[in-house]
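Catalogue entry: protein

Sequence with per-residue tokens
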Amino acid sequence: MTQRFRRLDTSRVVHHTSWLAVREYDIERDGVGDTYSVIERPDSITVVPLTPTNRTILLKQFRFPTNEHSWELPMGAVGAGERAEAAAQRELAEEVGLRGGELMRIGEYRAAPGLTPQRVSCFIVRVSEEALESSATSRRPADDIEEARIVDLAELTRMVGDGRITDGFTLAGFLLLRCWLDGLER
């Protein structure tokens, strides 16, 4: 199949904040000149702390763009010069109060490939029941996190199924977790 897009030599940043930049590219699409806007965001991570009984933690946050609360797995941006594994450990400490534990990368995906080149790495980290319970009850507030809830995978599945979880990073992380667990069960 012939590539429909041809990137020309010019681009410009038309908007920039500490969270993102919007870059416009001059392109040809099917031989016709056009502009394609791309949102440049840092790569990100999602991490699933997982106990031996397959319980994890969800964080309730208020999200300004949707004006809604959202139940999410721990996640965050990978800093400049930071490795994804280091970002996952940092986010676990900042958002959940968990430190240490061996990370296992269970997948990568592009959150919105028609909009941004951002890559998201998904990890699990095995934690004890006690560590998870302690983190949920004694963690300090971070960012806009209002509540931490420990759930088993059956409850997580119900929350996905009934629409209480709508965050794409959490949905993708949950799917990758299910695929990883299914691979272990074979």
User: Anything to note?
Assistant: Residues 168-185 form the longest helix (18 residues).
